[in-house]
Design goal:
Elements (H helix, E strand, L loop, with lengths): L12 H12 L8 H14 L3 E5 L2 H11 L7 E5 L5 H7 L4 E5 L1 E2 L2 E4 L1 H7 L4 E7 L8 H10 L4 E4 L7 E2 L2 E2 L6 E5 L12 E5 L2 H11 L22 H12 L1 H18 L6 E3 L6 E2 L5 E5 L2 H10 L5 E2 L17 H9 E4 L7 H16 L2
Parallel strand pairs: 2-3, 2-6, 6-7, 7-10
Antiparallel strand pairs: 1-11, 4-5, 8-9, 8-13, 10-11, 12-14, 14-16, 15-16
The structure holds pyridoxal-5'-phosphate.
Protein backbone atom coordinates (compact mmCIF):
# COMPACT_ATOMS: atom_id res chain seq x y z
CA UNK A 1 0.00 0.00 0.00
CA UNK A 2 1.31 3.47 -0.90
CA UNK A 3 1.56 5.95 1.93
CA UNK A 4 -1.48 8.23 2.14
CA UNK A 5 0.07 11.69 1.70
CA UNK A 6 -0.60 14.59 4.00
CA UNK A 7 -1.00 16.74 0.95
CA UNK A 8 -0.25 16.69 -2.76
CA UNK A 9 -0.89 18.93 -5.76
CA UNK A 10 -4.15 18.42 -7.64
CA UNK A 11 -3.07 18.86 -11.26
CA UNK A 12 -5.55 18.13 -14.06
CA UNK A 13 -6.02 18.56 -17.79
CA UNK A 14 -6.59 22.33 -17.54
CA UNK A 15 -3.21 22.84 -15.88
CA UNK A 16 -1.51 20.66 -18.52
CA UNK A 17 -3.26 22.63 -21.28
CA UNK A 18 -2.27 26.08 -19.98
CA UNK A 19 1.34 25.16 -19.19
CA UNK A 20 1.73 23.42 -22.55
CA UNK A 21 0.32 26.46 -24.35
CA UNK A 22 2.78 28.71 -22.52
CA UNK A 23 5.74 26.50 -23.47
CA UNK A 24 4.60 26.07 -27.08
CA UNK A 25 4.27 29.86 -27.41
CA UNK A 26 7.69 30.53 -25.93
CA UNK A 27 6.09 32.24 -22.94
CA UNK A 28 8.37 31.45 -20.04
CA UNK A 29 9.71 34.68 -18.56
CA UNK A 30 8.15 36.90 -15.94
CA UNK A 31 7.34 39.50 -18.59
CA UNK A 32 5.30 37.07 -20.74
CA UNK A 33 1.48 37.46 -20.79
CA UNK A 34 0.55 34.57 -18.43
CA UNK A 35 1.97 36.51 -15.44
CA UNK A 36 -0.13 39.62 -16.16
CA UNK A 37 -3.15 37.40 -16.91
CA UNK A 38 -2.74 35.54 -13.61
CA UNK A 39 -2.35 38.80 -11.68
CA UNK A 40 -5.45 40.29 -13.33
CA UNK A 41 -7.54 37.16 -12.74
CA UNK A 42 -6.39 36.93 -9.10
CA UNK A 43 -7.16 40.61 -8.45
CA UNK A 44 -10.61 40.14 -10.01
CA UNK A 45 -11.36 37.03 -7.94
CA UNK A 46 -10.58 38.86 -4.69
CA UNK A 47 -12.00 42.24 -5.76
CA UNK A 48 -8.60 43.88 -5.21
CA UNK A 49 -7.19 46.80 -7.18
CA UNK A 50 -3.75 45.17 -7.56
CA UNK A 51 -2.32 41.66 -7.54
CA UNK A 52 1.47 41.33 -7.70
CA UNK A 53 2.92 37.88 -8.40
CA UNK A 54 6.11 36.80 -6.64
CA UNK A 55 8.33 33.73 -6.51
CA UNK A 56 7.15 32.68 -3.02
CA UNK A 57 4.84 33.52 -0.16
CA UNK A 58 7.80 34.73 1.91
CA UNK A 59 8.79 37.11 -0.93
CA UNK A 60 5.26 38.53 -0.97
CA UNK A 61 5.34 39.19 2.79
CA UNK A 62 8.91 40.51 2.67
CA UNK A 63 8.06 42.96 -0.12
CA UNK A 64 5.02 44.33 1.70
CA UNK A 65 7.01 44.92 4.90
CA UNK A 66 9.80 46.56 2.85
CA UNK A 67 7.40 48.66 0.78
CA UNK A 68 5.83 49.99 4.00
CA UNK A 69 9.27 51.37 4.88
CA UNK A 70 9.73 49.13 7.92
CA UNK A 71 13.36 48.50 8.90
CA UNK A 72 15.95 48.56 11.69
CA UNK A 73 14.64 49.90 15.01
CA UNK A 74 11.03 49.08 14.12
CA UNK A 75 8.84 46.40 15.65
CA UNK A 76 6.11 44.37 13.97
CA UNK A 77 3.64 42.29 15.95
CA UNK A 78 3.33 38.77 14.56
CA UNK A 79 1.75 35.55 15.79
CA UNK A 80 4.06 33.18 17.63
CA UNK A 81 1.93 30.31 16.35
CA UNK A 82 2.62 30.40 12.60
CA UNK A 83 4.99 29.17 9.91
CA UNK A 84 8.47 30.66 10.13
CA UNK A 85 8.06 32.81 6.98
CA UNK A 86 5.79 35.19 8.92
CA UNK A 87 8.51 36.53 11.28
CA UNK A 88 11.19 36.11 8.60
CA UNK A 89 9.47 38.75 6.49
CA UNK A 90 10.15 41.14 9.37
CA UNK A 91 13.64 40.04 10.46
CA UNK A 92 14.97 39.97 6.87
CA UNK A 93 14.04 43.67 6.75
CA UNK A 94 16.16 44.32 9.84
CA UNK A 95 13.09 44.93 12.02
CA UNK A 96 12.10 42.97 15.13
CA UNK A 97 9.16 40.56 15.20
CA UNK A 98 7.34 40.83 18.53
CA UNK A 99 5.24 37.76 19.24
CA UNK A 100 1.64 37.60 20.40
CA UNK A 101 -0.37 34.56 21.44
CA UNK A 102 -3.23 33.01 19.48
CA UNK A 103 -6.73 32.23 20.65
CA UNK A 104 -7.69 29.34 22.88
CA UNK A 105 -8.24 26.34 20.58
CA UNK A 106 -8.08 28.82 17.69
CA UNK A 107 -4.90 29.25 15.68
CA UNK A 108 -5.45 32.94 14.82
CA UNK A 109 -3.56 35.71 16.63
CA UNK A 110 -5.64 37.25 19.44
CA UNK A 111 -6.60 40.95 19.32
CA UNK A 112 -6.17 41.46 23.09
CA UNK A 113 -2.69 39.91 22.96
CA UNK A 114 -1.74 42.17 20.02
CA UNK A 115 -2.75 45.26 21.97
CA UNK A 116 -0.61 44.25 24.96
CA UNK A 117 2.49 44.18 22.70
CA UNK A 118 2.09 47.60 21.06
CA UNK A 119 4.89 50.08 21.84
CA UNK A 120 6.03 53.38 20.33
CA UNK A 121 8.25 51.30 17.99
CA UNK A 122 5.40 49.20 16.57
CA UNK A 123 4.96 49.86 12.86
CA UNK A 124 2.58 47.10 11.73
CA UNK A 125 0.65 43.98 12.68
CA UNK A 126 0.85 40.74 10.71
CA UNK A 127 -1.95 38.22 11.16
CA UNK A 128 -1.89 34.68 9.72
CA UNK A 129 -5.05 32.79 8.73
CA UNK A 130 -3.80 29.29 9.50
CA UNK A 131 -5.04 25.94 8.17
CA UNK A 132 -7.72 27.87 6.25
CA UNK A 133 -9.35 29.24 9.42
CA UNK A 134 -9.84 33.03 9.36
CA UNK A 135 -8.52 35.10 12.27
CA UNK A 136 -11.16 36.97 14.23
CA UNK A 137 -10.66 40.11 12.12
CA UNK A 138 -13.20 42.48 13.64
CA UNK A 139 -11.47 42.97 17.02
CA UNK A 140 -8.07 42.89 15.30
CA UNK A 141 -9.03 45.71 12.91
CA UNK A 142 -10.47 47.68 15.86
CA UNK A 143 -7.10 47.49 17.69
CA UNK A 144 -5.20 48.37 14.50
CA UNK A 145 -7.42 51.37 13.78
CA UNK A 146 -7.22 52.57 17.38
CA UNK A 147 -3.40 52.59 17.18
CA UNK A 148 -3.24 53.63 13.52
CA UNK A 149 -1.24 50.56 12.50
CA UNK A 150 -1.34 48.83 9.09
CA UNK A 151 -2.38 45.17 9.07
CA UNK A 152 -0.72 42.68 6.74
CA UNK A 153 -2.58 39.40 6.27
CA UNK A 154 -0.54 36.25 5.78
CA UNK A 155 -3.10 34.33 3.74
CA UNK A 156 -0.68 31.60 2.62
CA UNK A 157 -2.96 28.88 4.00
CA UNK A 158 -6.41 30.36 3.42
CA UNK A 159 -7.11 31.09 -0.26
CA UNK A 160 -10.78 31.95 -0.58
CA UNK A 161 -11.68 31.74 3.13
CA UNK A 162 -14.13 34.43 4.23
CA UNK A 163 -14.88 36.25 7.48
CA UNK A 164 -18.31 37.89 7.68
CA UNK A 165 -18.63 37.56 3.92
CA UNK A 166 -15.29 39.21 3.09
CA UNK A 167 -12.23 37.39 1.74
CA UNK A 168 -9.26 36.88 4.04
CA UNK A 169 -6.47 38.99 2.59
CA UNK A 170 -8.75 41.98 1.91
CA UNK A 171 -9.13 43.43 5.43
CA UNK A 172 -5.77 45.14 5.89
CA UNK A 173 -3.21 47.01 3.79
CA UNK A 174 -2.27 43.87 1.90
CA UNK A 175 -2.90 40.15 1.73
CA UNK A 176 -0.05 37.76 0.92
CA UNK A 177 -0.57 34.28 -0.53
CA UNK A 178 1.66 31.25 -1.08
CA UNK A 179 1.32 28.84 -3.98
CA UNK A 180 3.78 26.27 -2.67
CA UNK A 181 3.03 22.73 -3.85
CA UNK A 182 1.12 21.73 -0.71
CA UNK A 183 -1.15 24.76 -0.69
CA UNK A 184 -4.88 24.91 -1.60
CA UNK A 185 -3.85 26.11 -5.07
CA UNK A 186 -0.31 25.84 -6.36
CA UNK A 187 2.14 27.14 -8.93
CA UNK A 188 4.91 24.82 -7.65
CA UNK A 189 6.61 27.75 -5.93
CA UNK A 190 5.07 31.20 -5.95
CA UNK A 191 3.20 33.90 -4.12
CA UNK A 192 0.92 36.91 -4.59
CA UNK A 193 0.30 40.26 -2.93
CA UNK A 194 -3.15 41.82 -3.16
CA UNK A 195 -3.74 45.42 -2.16
CA UNK A 196 -5.85 48.48 -2.95
CA UNK A 197 -3.03 50.86 -1.97
CA UNK A 198 -1.50 52.62 -5.01
CA UNK A 199 1.78 53.60 -3.33
CA UNK A 200 2.30 50.17 -1.75
CA UNK A 201 1.63 48.40 -5.06
CA UNK A 202 4.00 50.68 -6.98
CA UNK A 203 6.82 50.22 -4.47
CA UNK A 204 6.34 46.44 -4.21
CA UNK A 205 6.57 46.16 -8.01
CA UNK A 206 9.76 48.24 -8.13
CA UNK A 207 11.39 46.19 -5.38
CA UNK A 208 10.26 42.90 -6.93
CA UNK A 209 12.24 43.48 -10.13
CA UNK A 210 15.49 45.38 -9.69
CA UNK A 211 13.67 48.72 -9.78
CA UNK A 212 13.68 48.52 -13.56
CA UNK A 213 12.38 51.67 -15.20
CA UNK A 214 11.62 51.03 -18.90
CA UNK A 215 12.02 54.75 -19.59
CA UNK A 216 15.59 54.76 -18.24
CA UNK A 217 17.24 51.43 -19.11
CA UNK A 218 19.82 50.30 -16.55
CA UNK A 219 19.21 53.23 -14.24
CA UNK A 220 18.17 51.63 -10.94
CA UNK A 221 17.24 54.19 -8.31
CA UNK A 222 16.64 51.68 -5.54
CA UNK A 223 18.63 48.63 -4.50
CA UNK A 224 16.11 45.87 -5.12
CA UNK A 225 15.64 42.14 -5.75
CA UNK A 226 14.48 39.62 -8.31
CA UNK A 227 11.45 38.04 -6.66
CA UNK A 228 9.41 37.53 -9.83
CA UNK A 229 7.17 34.66 -10.90
CA UNK A 230 7.80 32.93 -14.24
CA UNK A 231 5.15 32.53 -16.94
CA UNK A 232 5.17 28.73 -16.51
CA UNK A 233 4.21 29.10 -12.85
CA UNK A 234 1.60 31.70 -13.76
CA UNK A 235 0.09 29.41 -16.41
CA UNK A 236 -0.30 26.72 -13.74
CA UNK A 237 -1.74 29.33 -11.39
CA UNK A 238 -4.32 30.48 -13.92
CA UNK A 239 -5.67 26.94 -14.21
CA UNK A 240 -5.65 26.42 -10.43
CA UNK A 241 -7.43 29.73 -9.90
CA UNK A 242 -10.16 28.71 -12.34
CA UNK A 243 -10.55 25.55 -10.24
CA UNK A 244 -10.17 27.25 -6.85
CA UNK A 245 -13.80 26.88 -5.78
CA UNK A 246 -13.72 23.20 -6.75
CA UNK A 247 -10.45 22.66 -4.83
CA UNK A 248 -11.80 24.40 -1.73
CA UNK A 249 -15.04 22.39 -1.97
CA UNK A 250 -13.10 19.13 -2.04
CA UNK A 251 -10.94 20.07 0.95
CA UNK A 252 -13.92 21.30 2.95
CA UNK A 253 -15.74 18.03 2.21
CA UNK A 254 -12.72 16.18 3.60
CA UNK A 255 -12.81 18.33 6.76
CA UNK A 256 -16.55 17.65 7.13
CA UNK A 257 -15.97 13.89 6.86
CA UNK A 258 -13.26 14.06 9.56
CA UNK A 259 -15.62 16.09 11.76
CA UNK A 260 -18.35 13.47 11.34
CA UNK A 261 -16.06 10.45 11.61
CA UNK A 262 -13.97 11.63 14.56
CA UNK A 263 -16.58 13.33 16.73
CA UNK A 264 -17.00 12.16 20.32
CA UNK A 265 -13.57 10.59 20.61
CA UNK A 266 -12.12 11.08 24.07
CA UNK A 267 -8.70 12.62 23.50
CA UNK A 268 -9.51 14.51 20.29
CA UNK A 269 -10.78 18.08 19.94
CA UNK A 270 -11.47 20.20 16.88
CA UNK A 271 -10.16 23.75 16.41
CA UNK A 272 -12.53 26.61 17.22
CA UNK A 273 -13.63 28.71 14.27
CA UNK A 274 -14.74 32.37 14.69
CA UNK A 275 -18.45 32.97 14.00
CA UNK A 276 -19.64 33.92 10.50
CA UNK A 277 -16.62 32.50 8.75
CA UNK A 278 -16.31 30.16 5.82
CA UNK A 279 -13.13 28.20 6.12
CA UNK A 280 -11.03 27.06 3.17
CA UNK A 281 -9.50 23.94 4.64
CA UNK A 282 -5.80 23.74 3.96
CA UNK A 283 -4.74 20.95 6.33
CA UNK A 284 -7.48 19.57 8.53
CA UNK A 285 -5.86 19.95 11.93
CA UNK A 286 -7.16 18.55 15.21
CA UNK A 287 -5.93 18.61 18.79
CA UNK A 288 -4.93 15.23 20.11
CA UNK A 289 -3.86 13.75 23.43
CA UNK A 290 -0.64 11.73 23.01
CA UNK A 291 -0.12 13.55 19.70
CA UNK A 292 3.44 12.35 19.03
CA UNK A 293 2.44 8.73 19.64
CA UNK A 294 -0.48 9.19 17.26
CA UNK A 295 1.80 10.58 14.51
CA UNK A 296 4.10 7.58 14.94
CA UNK A 297 1.24 5.09 15.01
CA UNK A 298 -0.29 6.53 11.83
CA UNK A 299 3.13 6.48 10.10
CA UNK A 300 3.36 2.75 10.81
CA UNK A 301 -0.08 2.38 9.22
CA UNK A 302 1.18 4.17 6.06
CA UNK A 303 -0.54 7.45 6.85
CA UNK A 304 1.38 10.70 6.61
CA UNK A 305 0.12 12.93 9.43
CA UNK A 306 2.19 15.82 10.79
CA UNK A 307 2.62 17.76 13.99
CA UNK A 308 1.91 21.50 13.79
CA UNK A 309 4.41 24.35 14.05
CA UNK A 310 6.83 24.85 16.90
CA UNK A 311 5.95 28.36 18.16
CA UNK A 312 8.28 31.06 16.90
CA UNK A 313 9.32 32.18 20.41
CA UNK A 314 10.88 28.71 20.89
CA UNK A 315 12.98 28.74 17.69
CA UNK A 316 16.72 29.55 17.92
CA UNK A 317 16.64 32.69 15.69
CA UNK A 318 13.57 34.10 17.43
CA UNK A 319 13.87 33.08 21.10
CA UNK A 320 11.66 35.44 23.10
CA UNK A 321 10.40 35.14 26.63
CA UNK A 322 6.74 35.70 27.31
CA UNK A 323 3.48 34.06 28.13
CA UNK A 324 2.05 32.10 25.20
CA UNK A 325 -0.09 29.36 26.77
CA UNK A 326 -2.52 28.97 23.86
CA UNK A 327 0.23 28.61 21.23
CA UNK A 328 2.01 26.14 23.47
CA UNK A 329 -1.17 24.08 23.88
CA UNK A 330 -1.76 23.99 20.11
CA UNK A 331 1.89 23.18 19.46
CA UNK A 332 1.77 20.27 21.87
CA UNK A 333 -1.53 18.80 20.65
CA UNK A 334 -1.99 19.87 17.01
CA UNK A 335 -1.86 17.22 14.31
CA UNK A 336 -2.68 17.70 10.64
CA UNK A 337 -4.41 14.77 8.95
CA UNK A 338 -4.22 13.87 5.24
CA UNK A 339 -6.11 16.66 3.46
CA UNK A 340 -5.16 16.67 -0.23
CA UNK A 341 -8.05 17.47 -2.53
CA UNK A 342 -7.12 14.21 -4.29
CA UNK A 343 -7.74 12.12 -1.14
CA UNK A 344 -10.25 9.35 -1.91
CA UNK A 345 -13.15 8.59 0.42
CA UNK A 346 -11.80 5.06 0.78
CA UNK A 347 -8.40 6.31 1.95
CA UNK A 348 -9.99 8.85 4.26
CA UNK A 349 -12.18 6.17 5.84
CA UNK A 350 -9.01 4.16 6.44
CA UNK A 351 -7.43 7.18 8.22
CA UNK A 352 -10.55 7.67 10.35
CA UNK A 353 -10.64 3.98 11.24
CA UNK A 354 -6.98 4.02 12.33
CA UNK A 355 -7.38 7.16 14.46
CA UNK A 356 -10.41 5.59 16.17
CA UNK A 357 -8.46 2.39 16.72
CA UNK A 358 -5.60 4.33 18.34
CA UNK A 359 -7.94 5.90 20.90
CA UNK A 360 -9.96 2.75 21.53
CA UNK A 361 -6.72 1.00 22.47
CA UNK A 362 -7.46 -2.08 20.31
C1 LIG B 1 1.47 30.72 7.18
C2 LIG B 1 2.49 30.73 6.09
N1 LIG B 1 3.09 31.88 5.78
C3 LIG B 1 3.99 31.96 4.79
C4 LIG B 1 4.36 30.85 4.07
C5 LIG B 1 5.45 31.00 3.08
O1 LIG B 1 5.13 30.63 1.80
P1 LIG B 1 6.27 30.08 0.82
O2 LIG B 1 6.65 28.72 1.26
O3 LIG B 1 5.59 30.09 -0.53
O4 LIG B 1 7.40 31.04 0.89
C6 LIG B 1 3.74 29.62 4.35
C7 LIG B 1 4.01 28.39 3.59
O5 LIG B 1 4.96 27.82 3.34
C8 LIG B 1 2.79 29.54 5.38
O6 LIG B 1 2.22 28.39 5.70
Amino acid sequence: MNKIPLCEPDIGELEIKYVTEAVRNNMVSSSAPPVRNFENAFAKFFGAKYAIATNSGLSALFLVVKALGIGPGDEVIVPTFTMVATPESVSHNGATPVFADCGKLNPGIDAGEIEKKITSKTKAIIVAHLFGIPCDMEPIMRVAEKHNLPVIEDTAEAHGATYRGKFCGTFGKAGCFSFYASKIMTTGEGGMIITNDDALAAMAKRLREYDINPKQPYIHELAAWNLRMSALEAALGLAQLERLKELIGKRNAIAARYAAGLSNIKGLEFMAVPPQTEISTWLCTVLADRRDELVEYLAKENIDAKRVFVPMHDLPPYKQSGNFPNAEYLAEHGISLPSASTLSEKDQNYVIEKVKKFYSGQ
